[in-house]
């Protein structure tokens, strides 16, 4: 028998629209603020360019004044010689006119004096101009960090909005008509009509969810990856009737709630998975009926046919207000789905089920009952594999074991199940130290080699370009960790050195997103609680150099700050990615702002809390910025590596921030290299 045409009347109001509006308002507000800050940054960039051009002009004028000084000095000496000569001749010939010689000498002296005054004034003008440049640069760094932070906030807000849009709740009224089969009872026809109406309602509901997504154009092409589901919260028959032509019509009122696999939200918006790691499991079933109440997007392919095994039951006509759960006999779905919860002992892993990626743990997913191949992977760990016969809801705890030779992906020490073993060929060799009892910071050998320096991925700042090939002909030794508070205290106690911050000038820190000078801050008290194994901060470039000079004398070996080439080469660890472990910061792999560590946006971490890179260096990503050695021609000094309160995009290996040598902050420290 042919199925009669279906009629579907839907009147639905998706709830949580106010929440969605709030989410959109949040996203819009962040985008607006980001646009404003970007405009400010562009303006400051133009102002800085003008100031740099003006500094070049002032420096050129100073060079001319200094060149003229030599010429005027020569003229003054020649005028003096001429006047002395005419004075000697005046002894023999008192009638000689010496006025011209006197005037020449007087004019030469006056011009030489004026030129010296002009040089002094020019130097003062350059110094004042340079202070303006330094302030503009600090403001630019602040804006760059603010914009990067806003980008992180925007990504989080977009994820939250999408999650809330998928989780909307609404009620649909469905009018549905089918033609009863000759072989089925009225009860069976009634049951089939109600089930098909319910499936049609859920299909329409999930279509409505996707159609009303704010970023529908971005998400729709990946709809098959969303893992979207619809949960039936409640449903009842508003009215139903049989007609004389063998048709059954039913009017259903169905309240439903959307749901989505939270671990896939980031991939739907093309965002880093770290923005999704904080979300828990999908919503639990709130309504249990004798037929499926949760429908995945993939399941909702509408069919009018019931299984041939439908039982034949004779029932009376139901009243219009009857509840479906009371009406329908148990009817297990043809492809029953079972909930599987997956957890693991590491962060930022990836789960594969039957060869398909499902994101990272913690993961809650509905799978068809039966056999499934489960695999959990993470770079640097042996994969966890299991063949699972899934018959009922269960939780699987995957324990990944770290590979002995792997140090590619930094992992907090609390997650490491066994120590990393050094491989003789690939790993850095510990350096034999003359006085091991007097050295705290272990050093490693950085091998000679070549690399591409700068922005290799196109995501960097202007001062990271162009990319250049650099060759390091000789190996060198570098401290594996940033200089600690305890190490710096030993220097202070031994030398009685007083840092620039302690000379009554204080130290900078971030307050409400702006760098602020605090006169009471110094390396001893940087504005947060610290221990001896924290990196020393609130030290200027000159303070770091003073420590290097002292350590050189103390150890009888030459220590200094690394230059930028040495720093980036060592920090890259023979990689070409943004970070030693890849191009995404991940979560809890380093201490930087919004990086997911327990110290992020709070304070530096004790040194060495995350795994070393391939050369054995710790904390080259985040924790504190590190001073580098400036060239003789440089006025400014560059810091590298990012910090605990700076955005992940500024912790990339090629990021460069130029600062004045006397600048110091509670997010800037250093490490040293040793001449071999």
TrEMBL record:
Chain coiled-coil ranges: 34-82
Entry annotated with the keyword Coiled coil: yes
Signal peptide boundaries: 1-21
Residues annotated as domain PEGA: 339-400
Keywords noted in UniProt: Coiled coil, Signal
TM segment ranges: none
Name of the protein in question: Sulfatase modifying factor 1
């Amino acid at each position: 028998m042919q199925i009669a045409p279906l009629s579907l009347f839907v009147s639905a109001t998706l709830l949580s629209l106010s929440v969605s509006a709030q989410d959109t308002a949040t996203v819009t507000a962040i985008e607006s603020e980001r646009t404003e800050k970007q405009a400010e940054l562009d303006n400051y960039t133009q102002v800085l360019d003008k100031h740099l051009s003006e500094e070049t002009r002032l420096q050129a004028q100073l060079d001319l004044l200094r060149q003229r000084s030599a010429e005027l000095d020569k003229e003054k000496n020649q005028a003096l010689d001429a006047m002395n000569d005419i004075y000697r001749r005046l002894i023999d010939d008192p009638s000689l006119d010496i006025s011209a010689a006197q005037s020449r000498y007087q004019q030469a002296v006056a011009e030489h004096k004026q030129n010296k005054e002009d040089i002094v004034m020019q130097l003062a003008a350059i110094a004042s101009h340079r202070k303006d440049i330094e302030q503009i640069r600090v403001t630019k760094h602040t804006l760059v960090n603010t914009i990067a932070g806003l980008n992180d906030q925007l990504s989080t807000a977009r994820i939250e909005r999408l999650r809330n849009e998928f989780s909307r709740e609404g009620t649909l009224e469905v009018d549905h008509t089918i033609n009863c089969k000759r072989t089925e009872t009225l009860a069976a026809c009634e049951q089939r009509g109600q089930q098909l109406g319910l499936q049609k309602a859920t299909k329409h509901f999930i279509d409505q969810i996707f159609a009303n997504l704010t970023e529908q154009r971005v998400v729709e092409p990946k709809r098959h990856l969303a893992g979207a589901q619809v949960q039936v919260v409640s449903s009842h028959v508003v009215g139903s009737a049989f007609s004389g032509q063998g048709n059954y019509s039913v009017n259903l009122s169905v309240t439903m709630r959307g749901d989505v696999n939270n671990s896939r939200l980031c991939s739907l918006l093309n965002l880093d998975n770290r923005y999704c790691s904080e979300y828990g499991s999908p919503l639990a079933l709130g309504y249990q009926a004798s037929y499926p109440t949760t429908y995945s997007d993939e399941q909702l392919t509408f069919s009018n046919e019931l299984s041939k095994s439908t039982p034949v039951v004779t029932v009376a006509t139901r009243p219009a207000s009857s509840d479906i759960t009371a009406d329908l006999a148990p009817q297990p779905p043809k492809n029953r789905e079972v909930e599987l919860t997956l957890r693991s002992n590491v962060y930022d892993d990836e789960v594969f089920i039957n060869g398909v990626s499902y994101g990272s743990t913690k993961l809650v997913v509905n799978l068809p009952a039966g056999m499934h191949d489960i695999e959990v992977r993470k770079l640097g760990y042996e994969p966890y594999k299991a063949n699972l016969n899934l018959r009922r809801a269960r939780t699987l705890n995957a324990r990944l074991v770290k590979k002995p030779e792997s140090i590619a992906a930094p992992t907090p020490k609390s997650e490491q199940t066994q120590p990393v073993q050094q491989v003789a060929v690939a790993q850095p060799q510990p350096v034999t130290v003359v006085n091991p009892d007097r050295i705290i910071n272990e050093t490693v050998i950085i091998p000679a080699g070549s690399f591409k320096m700068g922005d290799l991925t196109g995501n960097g700042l202007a001062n990271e370009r162009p990319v250049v090939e650099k060759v390091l002909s000789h190996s060198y030794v570098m401290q594996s960790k940033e200089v600690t508070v305890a190490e710096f205290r030993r220097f202070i106690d031994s030398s009685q050195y007083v840092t620039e911050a302690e000379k009554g000038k204080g130290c900078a820190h971030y307050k409400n997103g702006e760098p602020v000078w605090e006169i009471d801050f110094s390396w001893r008290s940087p504005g947060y609680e610290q221990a001896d194994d924290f990196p020393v901060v609130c030290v200027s470039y000159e303070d770091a150099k003073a420590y290097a000079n002292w350590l050189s004398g103390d150890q009888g070996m030459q220590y200094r700050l690394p230059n930028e080439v040495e720093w980036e080469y060592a920090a890259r660890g023979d990689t070409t990615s943004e970070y030693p472990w890849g191009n995404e910061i991940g979560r809890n792999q380093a201490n930087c702002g919004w990086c997911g560590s327990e110290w992020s946006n709070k304070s530096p971490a004790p040194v060495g809390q995350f795994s070393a890179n391939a050369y054995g260096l710790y904390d080259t990503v985040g924790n504190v910025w590190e001073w580098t050695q400036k060239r003789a021609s440089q006025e400014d000094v560059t810091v590298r590596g990012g910090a605990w309160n700076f955005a992940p995009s500024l912790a990339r290996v090629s990021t460069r921030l130029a600062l004045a040598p006397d600048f110091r902050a509670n997010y800037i420290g250093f490490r040293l290299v040793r001449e071999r």
